Amino acid sequence: MSCSLLQSLKTFNDRRYLSIFIFGIASGVPWVMIGSVLNAWLADEGLSRSAIGLFGIVFSVYSLNFLWSPLIDRIKPLFLGQRRGWIISMQIGIALGCVAMSQLTADTHLFYLALFSFCIALCSSTQDIAIDGYRIDIIDESDKDGLSAASSVATAGWWTGFGGLGAIPFFLVDTPYFYWPNVYLLLAAAMGILMLGTLLAREPAIARERLLESAVSHIPLSTKNRFLTWIKQTLIAPFAEFFVRNGVQLALSFLLFIFLFKIGEAFLGRMSLVFYKEIGFSNSDIGTYSKLLNWWVTILFSLVGGMVNIRYGIYRGLMTAGIAMAASNLMFAWIAQSGPNVTLLAAAVIVDGFTSAWSTVAMVAFISLLCHRAFSATQYALMASLSVAGRTFLAAGSGFVVDALDGNWSFFFIATALMVLPSLYFLYRIKDKIQHLEHPPT
Predict the structure, then answer these.
(1) What's in the keyword line of the UniProt record (predicted)?
(2) pTM for the full model?
């Protein structure tokens, strides 16, 4: 077994994975800007749990980005190519949004905080479309192991941005020299540095027009009007091809599983910062354990999860992650009973980091496996949007749920653990289809 895992590790010995890692960081940092940092800022200003939860509605953009994702596949920017051109354009928008938020205060500019949070989310979700397309395009279609390796590196990068860089603001605001608005200037500078990685990355060499012709050859989209044909091939073909290739019933089964898999984790994640503060953890505790420790744990298990997926398959990776995800949520119920115990917090963060990393790597590899290369960004965005939908539309009401439970955090976390079970049932139902995709008959 150890020799097999060491053999899997050799898959990572490729310069392309460095670019994928840097792009992962660029995807994770905006979630700090409009997620944990904004939540902590609003909590320190005394906003209610319900109000803070409602700010999460800006994340709905991530669930809807599939609506404009076809444009990312078809419209080529004037510089840096199809993928990198879109990525760096959106990174500029994110940095400018941070600069704008640094000039605001939560007590008098709440509307503008929400507005610029939305702008950052819009640019970030569009950046993610291009980054996901880049990751799929840069790996050879026949290299199934490469997809798992790329997924694990991307996850490690995301958590480096979200956990590693995301820890710094919590340490800074515990000093007398920094306040939350100043943090956004630092985050804008971090995004500026990440732009260098975009400039140095290699653009994927994809014969996109030839792939498009092959993909739509069995779908009646052509008309006498060239513009109408372009519209159909851009907006309709990516979704039609997915359902035609898989069949409606199987395609819907895939999508339903993707939607259900991370709902429990989303409810927990949306309220975690509020929970930490109500229980009595300091900003430094949050930075040390929830961010820094979680960062290293997630990087480790992202790479291990990738190697396990390479060795044992995506289905086993998903099933293991789902069971562990339910168990990790129960750890937070334990903290709710024990109070601000940093040892228990560290244990919960380690377990949660393992499950989050493992489940994300397996899910990213699974979604990537389902995509056609002609529509890699569009089809990935469609399925990733469903995966994020739970943490946006549904989890935005998590504050109301805690309020309805009269602040009973233990019961809330037990409920989030039970939310995982329906997705595991659907995963078992599509087991054979997943294994067929991983190892198609020759």
Answers:
(1) Membrane, Transmembrane, Transmembrane helix, Transport
(2) 0.71
What is the torsional sign of CA 147, 358, 117, 32?
negative
Distance CA 108, CA 118 (A): 18
Amino acid identity, position 293: L
Buried b (16+ CB within 10 A) or exposed e, 122-149: bbbbbbbbbbbbbbbbbbeeeebbbbbb
Q: Alpha-carbon dihedral of residues 16, 164, 91, 95, nearest 10 degrees?
A: -160
Find the largest Cα–Cα distance for the chain.
Answer: 70
Alpha-carbon distance 80 to 158, whole Å? Answer: 23
Backbone angles phi, psi at 143, to 5 degrees: -90, 80
User: What domains does the chain contain, in order, with CATH numbers?
Assistant: 14-438 (1.20.1250.20)
Q: How far apart are CA 57 and CA 62, in angstroms?
A: 10
193 within 8 A of 202, measured Cβ to Cβ: no
Q: Which helix (H) or strand (E) holds 235?
A: none
The span from the CA of 328 to the CA of 354, in Å, is: 9
Confidence grade of residue 3 (pLDDT, cut at 50, 70, 90): very low
Tokens 């027009």 -> residue: 209
d(Cα 266, Cα 162) in Å, to the nearest integer?
15
Under a CB-based contact definition with an 8 Å cutoff, are residues 365 and 308 in contact? no
